[in-house]
Write a structure and sequence with these properties.
The protein is 32% helix and 18% strand. The chain is an alpha/beta fold. It binds the ligand O=C1O[C@H](COP(=O)(O)O)[C@@H](O)[C@H](O)[C@H]1O.
Length: 225
């Protein structure tokens, strides 16, 4: 007999998907469109798949990313590719997806065009779902990024980011733009990330652990082992 009990991570993804879908429904009851900002990486895949099955007027939902590697959309490590493959499926394919890259060779050259595109969306976002790396980065706000200070302080929508610890240049939504959302959720899994979050909660230096910039949003944490 096969074991059909969902794993804690699957249960977490389902709970997160239901919470996000309900938040979108609430906002869509009083406005034409609602914007969802998602993160990339490996953690959100089961959440994307669970959200894609939720009943929503998807044609009124807009989706964009908290950050992106400056790679072609069909690259294996493209967050846009991940969203298209796992979230924009079935009825959810009717959502409007706005990616964060252009054909320009660098994010510095493309950032303005991306900001223009992004500014056409239904801000403030209904929900921002943040991820977090083992170094305390969230979106592409990395502790070792040259542009961390700029990304934390600018009023612009996007910032091109160069980070010694990362192989590709990136583009990120600014902290200001992310802060403007109505709701902030953190989706993380595993003991290592729980320990990083505990460390973040016990100090206040945002440059050491950039996730600290969002702890007081308030930030609802979805964690599973
Ligand atoms: O680089 C990134 O990493 C974080 C976390 O990724 P994960 O693979 O540990 O889930 C993610 O939140 C961010 O959007 C992504 O660009």
């Amino acid at each position: 007999m096969t074991n059909t009990t969902p794993s804690p991570r699957e249960q977490l993804s389902r709970q997160l998907a239901e919470a996000v879908a309900e938040a979108l429904r609430v906002d869509l009851a009083r406005q034409d469109n609602a914007l969802l900002v998602v993160s990339g990486g490996s953690t959100p895949v089961p959440f994307f798949e669970a959200l894609a099955t939720c009943e929503l007027p998807w044609e009124r939902v807009q989706v964009t990313l908290a950050d992106e590697r400056w790679v072609p959309e069909d690259a294996v490590d493209s967050n846009a590719r991940l969203v298209r493959a796992h979230l924009l499926q079935g009825p959810a394919a009717l959502a409007t997806f706005v990616p964060l890259t252009t054909d320009n060779p660098t994010p510095e050259q493309g950032a303005e065009a991306v900001a223009e595109r992004i500014n056409g969306l239904a801000w403030p976002a209904s929900v921002v779902i943040l991820g977090m790396g083992g170094d305390g980065h969230t979106a592409s706000l990395f502790p070792d990024s040259r542009e961390l200070e700029l990304a934390l302080t600018t009023g612009a929508a996007t910032v091109a980011v160069r980070t010694p610890s990362q192989p590709q240049p990136r583009i990120t939504l600014s902290a200001d733009r992310l802060h403007q959302a109505h709701r902030h959720l953190l989706h993380i899994t595993g003991g290592d990330k729980r320990a990083v979050l505990a460390r973040a909660l016990s100090g206040d230096d945002v440059r050491e652990l950039p996730i600290r910039a969002f702890l007081a949003c308030p930030l609802a944490t979805y964690w599973a082992p």
